[in-house]
Design brief:
The protein is α/β, with parallel strands linked by helices and 284 residues long. The chain is built from eleven helices and eight strands. It starts with a helix and ends with a helix.
């Protein structure tokens, strides 16, 4: 029973389940709402850093034309701002969850037009029932998904509320997809993948955008691809920087998951990310 409740608790920590959904699912296992609530340390849970109704921001769900049809995306921008550089924020392998919307809002507060597409748009969008997420991911066409994220670059390049400068960042699955956006979108101005799987050497040779690559020190599977990627980027003349965060594991930026979050690394990586985007996306 404890293991089952803990599974839902981890989903809550990751922002996949809200508090109400967690309690409902756990109560059915634990034998009552009060028992479910008493089993886990709710006081340790972290709230969203930037509230969905933050009065400094304008937020909305929009859609843009993509390879798979209309791609839904969460948009955030400073309220009342003029034209801004844009940043695409790509989610992990659980879809467009509250945590990634929060990251998009944080990016907006840094002075960017932030757009977080939902990869699951072609199959009905990210479901409320998280047990359906993996099945929907399995239905995606990988090549079409890559093209749909790259299409966000074209959309933002000509958006009336942007300067035409576009960057891209993503986490885990989204980190790998950020690398792919850099491969497919020659007009991309900057890319910052977090612990993302690397493209092939042939694909890397097509990248034009400068890269800032964040990796966790304790992430052997992903890190095994770093040397070959670096070599391919050097051969292609692509400007890049690599940072390895010792003591941190995969998904260290996810502050909604205490078991993965490494605050020191996350804060430093975020500072470097924002400085990189402000440098590379300045001007018009």
């Amino acid at each position: 029973m404890k293991e089952d409740v803990s599974f839902y608790f981890e989903q809550y920590q990751q922002g996949i389940l809200d508090r109400r959904s967690f309690l409902k699912k756990s109560a059915a296992i634990a034998g009552g709402l009060a028992l479910a609530a008493s089993m886990l340390p709710f006081d340790d849970l972290q709230a969203e850093i930037t509230a969905p109704d933050d009065t400094r921001l304008e937020t909305n769900m929009i859609s843009y034309p993509a390879a798979t049809g209309a791609m839904k995306a969460y948009m955030a921008r400073p309220k009342g701002a003029g034209r801004l550089p844009a940043v695409i924020v790509i989610h992990e392998n659980m879809g467009l969850q509250p945590h990634i919307r929060d990251v998009a809002r944080r990016m907006a507060l840094e002075g960017f037009f932030s757009l977080a597409p939902d990869a699951l748009s072609p199959v009905g969008g990210t479901p409320d029932n998280t047990e359906e997420v993996r099945a929907r991911f399995a239905q995606l066409d990988t090549e079409q998904t890559r093209k749909s994220f790259a299409a966000a670059v074209d959309y933002l390049k000509t958006h009336p509320q942007t300067t035409g400068k576009v960057g891209c960042t993503g986490f885990c699955w989204g980190g790998a997809m950020t690398n792919q956006v850099a491969v497919l979108a020659p007009d991309l101005d900057a890319a910052v993948p977090y612990y993302g799987g690397q493209p092939s050497a042939e694909e890397a040779s097509k990248i034009k955008a400068p890269l800032l690559l964040h990796y966790a020190g304790n992430d052997a599977r992903i890190n095994a691809g770093i040397p070959a990627y670096e070599e391919a980027l050097r051969k292609a003349g692509v400007p890049f920087q690599v940072y390895l965060y010792e003591g941190a594991g995969h998904a260290f930026n996810n502050d909604s998951n205490p078991s993965r979050y490494h605050k020191e690394s996350a804060d430093l990586a975020w500072q470097r990310t924002i400085a990189f985007f402000k440098e590379k996306l300045s001007g018009s």
